[in-house]
Amino acid sequence: MTELTEMTETTLTDPTVVRAIQLVWREAKLLDDKAYEVWQDLYADDGVYVIPIDPDTEDFASSLNMVYDDKRLRGMRVERMIQGYAPSAVAAARTVRTISRFQVEAASATEVTLTSAQVLVAYKRGRTDVLGAELTHTVRLSDDGDRIALKVVRLLNSEEAVTASGYLL
């Protein structure tokens, strides 16, 4: 993978970077629409979705995480979200995500790693919550369809008590 050492305006207009950003935005829309079965298909078979507690960790496998989902665990989480029996699925929150401030961390013809900022607003049972997070997405590009190889959600309040969200971040 080719490391990019400085940002330029043309970096974000590079066709491979644009494809990766479009996939990140599509993921956000699917989550807001609660299209969880379609959402999980955005991930590579070996893709990982992680929400670490330690805001500085890079060793997710050896760290305590709120979420550390491979394909099997994502599938189980989606099943709970759509079956309607889990507390997180009953009267699920309505959400809207804004993802912006993209920066390219690394890029090649077949893979792009982006960081971005996310603001998620959730409404459930008369209560509105706002969550901020730093996101990292590694997107594999392929003629067969682009897929997320890694998504890291670093919540701003990850070291505090976080109530059950009832939605995917």
Automatic annotation (TrEMBL):
The keyword Protein transport does not apply. GO terms for molecular function: dioxygenase activity. GO terms for biological process: 3-phenylpropionate catabolic process. InterPro entries: NTF2-like_dom_sf, Rng_hydr_dOase-bsu. Pfam families: Ring_hydroxyl_B. Keywords: Dioxygenase, Oxidoreductase. Belongs to the bacterial ring-hydroxylating dioxygenase beta subunit family. This is 3-phenylpropionate/cinnamic acid dioxygenase, small subunit. It comes from Raineyella antarctica. The lineage of its organism: Bacteria, Bacillati, Actinomycetota, Actinomycetes, Propionibacteriales.
